[in-house]
Design a protein that fits this description.
The chain is α+β, with helices and mostly antiparallel strands and 568 residues long. The protein contains 14 helices and 24 strands. The strands form six sheets. Strands 15, 16, 17, 18, 19, 20, 21, 22, 23 and 24 form a ten-stranded antiparallel β-sheet that branches. Strands 1, 5, 8 and 12 form a four-stranded mixed β-sheet that branches. It has a domain of 146 residues. Helix 6 crosses helix 8 and helix 10 packs across helix 12.
């Protein structure tokens, strides 16, 4: 997936955390008002976003500066307070893990923008790309402010005038009260409002595709502290402006090439302003009056809208998340195709041909049904042309998009350990690589969350004489928290394991997924998919989950448990 990376691998981001990179680190809180604290609480929904970063963007620069307060969302997408479990993460007696989800405003100000980055979509099980936002009133300091943040609120963030605000609501086909509706759970029994989910998904998928095009061209976006993380906030802003000025409804807006080209031109100018502000050299061939060719990205965006209408119709109310999970995962796979097309060839176009052919209606239904299964996997589908022997029958489709029958979910992992390895060992003499992680999971039997220790070895660009590259480690002992994604609702049987890694005062997020088996040097290895910051990697485990015998207590213990595989 070509989304911008924060770090190159699991071990790397732990190793270079000493340099203070990454969200969650401590920083000089220069914007804090002395002795002032106001609890903010709410929910982030696209589907629900677990372990996303929610922060107060006081200076509205679309990135979290070190002095701006932040928190993570919990496994259900809530921050500060979870009404489903009646858990107050900001309580005076909250434990260390709970405080990760507590958001407090530390500045006496009338309003600010709440922004959301990263995390994992519980509906699809995939990393969330882009940024969501909502402008919030902070003038009432005597009560917690419950704030729902979604793609719909993101469109309204810059609509300060009442007329503009109302025009956007009209284009979306919703009213003021709808922006506070948890459309994934309208009645406490997980009934899904198809109209709101349909609109939210259309908006954010379009923004993601268009922002990715700009980020591929202006690749330094997100690399400069104090500048926007990515281009999604800019796309949202100009999309809202064009909705107000054009009078289009949402479908008409997203399908109108001329109007959407104007959105992209304005956002591209924003990208150039960032380059100018930070004195960065523009990409080669960039000229002041010449803009990018947006044609293919606009076409992809418009076609995604059609698929969303096909698999998540706005006129329908769904009885549960399970009913729409398969459709949402299909849309996610197509979005990944659209973002990766330059790397994978034109598989997006062939996928659309398959989906739009009425003769394939039963096969499309089989595809969405199998993608809705807990053991579905998008890896092969995101690279597939939706043609050939894999798409000639329902059985063939099931084999393509489901994990092998013997794949075990993450369940009852307390008291177990798991070693995963990167099988790329580099080359001699001066580019040796050796990365491995061994995790030790703690908590009570049948728990869906708990703590862990981990030994981390990260060696890259090492020399055969034994000298290591920068930020390398032969063994680091780190700690963190684990939970099973959606584990409470699937009886602890989850194919996604969320990790919060605590290292040198900073917290990082990652997710592990089983991905079948493969034979390497005649040894059957379990494939473990590792996702961090939008980057998907395959790691491998020879033993899988094993019962923990003894625990490491030092870096020296970790170095002994993870001996060198490259002879240094």
């Amino acid at each position: 997936m070509p989304h911008k990376l924060t770090f190159k691998s699991f071990a790397l981001y732990l190793a270079i955390a000493t340099a203070g990179f990454g969200c969650g680190g401590t920083g000089q809180d220069t914007g804090k008002s002395k002795n002032f604290s106001q609890t903010l609480q709410g929910l982030v929904v696209d589907g629900y976003l677990a372990r996303a970063t929610v922060f107060l963007d006081y200076d509205n620069n679309s990135t979290r500066d070190p002095w701006e307060p932040f928190a993570f969302t919990d496994d259900n997408g809530y921050y500060s307070y979870n009404p489903l479990t009646d858990t107050d993460y900001c309580a005076a007696d909250a434990d260390a893990q709970s405080t990760l989800y507590c958001l407090r405003n530390t500045r006496q100000t009338a309003e600010a923008v709440l922004r959301v980055d990263g995390g994992y979509d519980v509906l699809t099980g995939e990393p969330f790309m882009g940024q969501l936002s909502r402008r919030v009133d902070l003038s009432d300091t005597h009560r917690p402010t419950h704030t729902l943040i979604s793609p719909l609120t993101s469109l309204l963030t810059t609509a300060r005038a009442p007329a503009g605000h109302d025009a956007i609501l009209a284009a979306l086909g919703i009213d003021e009260t709808d922006i506070d509706v948890d459309f994934m759970n309208t009645d406490g029994a997980y009934t899904v409002d198809g109209a709101l989910l349909n609109a939210a998904m259309k908006v954010h998928k379009a923004v993601s595709v268009l922002a990715n095009l700009l980020e591929a061209r202006y690749s330094e976006i997100g690399s400069q502290a104090g500048a926007a993380n990515d281009m999604s906030s800019s796309i949202y802003r100009h999309l809202a402006s064009q909705i107000v000025s054009s009078g289009h409804d949402l479908n008409g807006m997203l399908s109108d090439t001329q109007t959407m080209s104007a959105v992209m031109r304005a956002a591209e100018l924003d990208a150039r302003k960032i380059y100018d502000q930070w004195d960065m050299e523009l990409p080669q061939g960039t000229q002041a009056q010449v803009f990018m060719d947006y044609g293919r990205a606009l076409q992809h965006s418009a076609q995604l809208i059609q698929v969303i209408d096909q698999v998540i119709p706005s006129a329908q109310t769904f009885a549960s998340e399970e009913e729409i999970r398969g459709g949402a995962r299909l849309v996610e796979a197509l979005t990944i195709k659209a973002l990766s097309e330059s790397e994978q060839g034109n598989t997006f176009a062939s996928a659309m041909t398959f989906l739009q052919d009425d003769a394939n209606r039963s096969l499309v239904q089989s595809l969405t049904e199998n993608l809705g299964h807990p053991a579905s996997d998008l890896n092969q589908l995101t690279r597939h042309s939706f043609s050939g022997i894999d798409f000639i029958s329902s059985d063939a489709i099931r084999n393509l998009v489901r994990l092998p029958e013997n794949t075990q979910p993450f369940a009852q992992i307390a008291g177990k350990q798991l070693r995963v390895s990167d099988m790329d060992l580099g080359s001699a003499p001066d580019n040796l690589k050796d990365s491995e992680v061994e995790l030790y999971f703690h908590h009570s039997e049948n728990a869906t969350r708990g703590t862990f220790d981990a030994c981390v070895k990260y060696i890259k660009e090492a020399h055969i004489n034994g000298s290591l590259g920068a930020a390398n480690t032969r063994g680091e002992l780190v700690k963190g928290y684990w939970s099973l994604l959606d584990g409470d609702r699937n009886n602890g049987n989850s194919y996604s394991l969320l990790l919060n890694i605590e290292f040198l005062g900073a917290t990082y997020q990652a997710i592990l997924k089983p991905a079948g088996t493969v034979s390497i040097n005649k040894v059957t290895m379990q494939v473990i998919r590792f996702d961090h910051a939008g980057k998907l990697r395959a790691w491998y485990s020879a033993e899988g989950l094993q019962t923990t015998s003894t625990l490491p207590v030092s870096n020296e213990d970790c170095a002994q448990r993870l001996p060198s595989r490259v002879g240094i």
